[in-house]
């Protein structure tokens, strides 16, 4: 490869999975991305990417190039952030992908309580559902430890869940839950066992589930932190132990010494410390 600029197009398409999203991230158009990838394929003598149901995936021919480019990009970004994170320059932009429930009940409260920890940082939040890897994010926060790869993974905290019901509802035969894509998760399996049937209604995220429970007055599983905000909700089984979901944050190994990453990681950990103290305070008495 004689045109190093092609690496930018390789990395963008591998992160986003679509020509349109890659073009947007690069500030160009879809035709240019397609042309660059096609030219690279001709140079290699084989397709650089393979079209799948989930989007474009890099072929074995370009995987080493992409890894090299990602490492270089990460190290370059770390070096730049080292120079500007404590200066009067524009804040360092960090993209954080997270499940909506973690963002809402754990991270957002920390934006006011611990805003000083983010001096020099501008956070861009994005929702992450059923995606693997970093994608376009600098950091990703999710339940369960991520698969191994060229990443650094840190356990940052946990969320406790249990089944709640509306105090004014007598219905305990039906329940509401998450979409069938979540059926392998422990809480959904517990719901199937407890009620002996699939949920009557389904939604695709916990924030929507919370709203559905309040409207229908049907029971469902919520984080203790979120349920504590609703005086009309009570635990179905107050003496039972909650289901605890570990929360992990990860980033590319080339960003290990990036001060923007480190500062954001410390802030996330502090947010979880607050959340876990609050959850312990609102746990049902036994």
Structural description of this entry:
It is built from nine helices and eleven strands. With 286 residues, the protein is of the alpha/beta class. The protein has two domains: 6-61, Arc Repressor Mutant, subunit A (Orthogonal Bundle), CATH 1.10.10.10; 94-286, D-Maltodextrin-Binding Protein, domain 2, CATH 3.40.190. The strands form three sheets. Strands 3, 4, 5, 6, 9, 10 and 11 form a seven-stranded mixed β-sheet that branches. Strand 3 (92-98), helix 5 and strand 4 form a beta-alpha-beta unit. It is globular and about 70 Å long. The relative contact order is 0.15. InterPro entries: LysR-type_TF_proteobact-type, LysR_HTH_N, WH-like_DNA-bd_sf, WH_DNA-bd_sf. Belongs to the LysR transcriptional regulatory family.
What kind of sheet is the major sheet? 7 strands, mixed
Query: What Rg is obtained from the alpha carbons, in whole angstroms?
Result: 22 Å
Give the ordered list of helices and strands: HHHEEHEHEEEEHEHEHEEH
The tally of helices reads 9
Mean pLDDT, rounded to whole units? 86
Q: What's the domain count?
A: 2
Report the CATH C-level class of the largest domain. Answer: Alpha Beta
Q: Percent of residues in beta strands?
A: 15-25%
Based on helices, strands and strand pairing, what is the structural class?
alpha/beta
Number of strands: 11
Secondary-structure arrangement, i.e. CATH architecture of the largest domain: 3-Layer(aba) Sandwich
Described by the principal axes of the CA atoms, the overall outline is globular
Proportion in helices: 40-55%
Low-confidence stretches: none
Topology-level CATH name of the largest domain: D-Maltodextrin-Binding Protein, domain 2
Family: Belongs to the LysR transcriptional regulatory family.
Domain HTH lysR-type: 1-59
Protein name: Transcriptional regulator
GO biological process, one term: DNA-templated transcription
């Amino acid at each position: 490869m004689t045109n190093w600029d092609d690496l930018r197009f390789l990395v963008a398409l591998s992160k986003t999975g679509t020509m349109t999203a890659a073009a947007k991230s690069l500030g160009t158009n879809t035709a240019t991305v397609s042309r660059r990838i096609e030219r690279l394929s001709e140079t290699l003598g084989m397709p650089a990417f393979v079209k799948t149901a989930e989007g474009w995936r890099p072929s074995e021919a370009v995987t080493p190039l992409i890894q090299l480019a990602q490492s270089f990009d990460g190290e370059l970004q770390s070096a730049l952030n080292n120079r500007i994170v404590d200066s009067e320059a524009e804040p360092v932009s960090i993209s954080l992908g997270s499940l909506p429930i973690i963002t809402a009940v754990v991270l957002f409260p920390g934006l006011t309580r611990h805003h000083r920890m983010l001096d020099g940082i501008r956070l861009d939040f994005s929702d992450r559902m059923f995606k693997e890897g970093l994608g376009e994010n600098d950091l990703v926060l999710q339940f369960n430890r991520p698969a191994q790869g060229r990443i650094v993974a840190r356990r940052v905290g946990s969320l406790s869940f249990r089944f709640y019901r509306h105090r004014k509802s007598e219905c305990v035969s039906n329940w509401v839950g998450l979409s069938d894509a979540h059926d392998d998760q422990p809480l959904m399996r517990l719901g199937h066992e407890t009620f002996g049937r699939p949920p009557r209604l389904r939604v695709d995220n916990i924030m929507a589930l919370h709203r559905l429970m309040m409207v229908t007055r049907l029971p469902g599983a919520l984080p203790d932190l979120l349920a504590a905000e609703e005086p009309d909700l009570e635990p179905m089984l107050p003496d039972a132990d909650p289901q605890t979901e570990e929360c992990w944050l990860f980033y590319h190994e080339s960003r290990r010494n990036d001060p923007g990453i480190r500062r954001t990681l410390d802030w996330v950990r502090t947010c979880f410390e607050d959340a876990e103290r609050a959850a312990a305070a609102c746990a049902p008495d036994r």
